[in-house]
Amino acid sequence: MVAPELLVFLASLVAGGFGAVVGVGGGLVLVPLLSVGLGVPIHSAIAASLLGVICVSTTASASFLRSGLADRRLGLRLLGATALGGIIGGYVSGLLDARFLAAVFGVVLVLVALQMLRGQRGRMSETVGAPGWMEFDWSYVEPTTGEEIAYRARNVGPAALVSVFAGALSGLLGIGGGVVNVPTMNVLMGIPIRVATTTSTYMLAATAAASAVLYFSRGDVDPALASPVVVGVFIGARGGAWLAHRLPHRALTLLFVAVAAFFSVQMFLRAAGS
Amino acid sequence: MNDQRPPVAATASVLTLGTVASVVALAAAFVSGLIGAASLSTLLSTVGVVALLATPVAGLVVTFFELRPSQPRAAQMALVVLAVLALSTVIAVLTR
Fold it and tell me: CB-based contacts of A128: which residues, under 8 Å, 6+ apart?
């Protein structure tokens, strides 16, 4: 008989690794794996997942800040909005029935899977003329080419509004807000995809902390669950980051879509009470 | 283009330290749980969770001091985020 903590650890290891390889974060896989696969109450699964999000974000952010890939000024402009959304999501989650949450999670899984199938579009704004009010110019050094790439952060106000929604989704479902933040920064603001991804990762820790505190105060953070989840996600994400450049990305994306489809059906079944 | 990049070393160090401290505490809690020391496991796990929750807050405080000389508006944004996190804690205490 395998100890339940060990099963949770293995599930978190797989979810963290898979999330890092595919680039969606571990929460989208971890929450259904814990709640559907291991029978953990969904509020506790979400709370544990948020702790995993914080851990992965703080670890990666230190590296992204040192390398100059994360735009801290941009992240801070949006972070107030995502953290506010995190509070809303974390608070509303406590009012919602587990079955309703499962249904919302199922819908989000389907949407993310569809977005993964479409692929990410690479957009970038030009730095012609002086930046307008709230806009600013910045640059980063692309690690693959060594080239300094300049960009302009546009539409900060509208992006902040969308960020509230990203934070709320994160707090509600225990996922990183990257599924909304990255396309917002890339498509709406014209931020290069690499900077959008790393800056989104930088923003996740404080966003998740804003909602995790609410789960903690409600008693949804189970100490017996928190330790194997955080340690498993931490190791899995590091392994996944190492594997990401060594595995066929397209095949893994299709595998993620299949896994997301399976879990979305399971979540809908749970919502229906079967 | 970015000749005057603000320093990041202190923030990066705080984030790394906080993560390592919390992961070590949580790993010890995990092992304690496996060997049956339930009360020690709960204590270490709670310490790890609190350290983990405090890490982004500590990172933002250090970010404020790092950015204040060269990017005062960004430093103010760090304060705004800290205020939002404080609001979250107040709501958590009031609704528990």
Answer: none
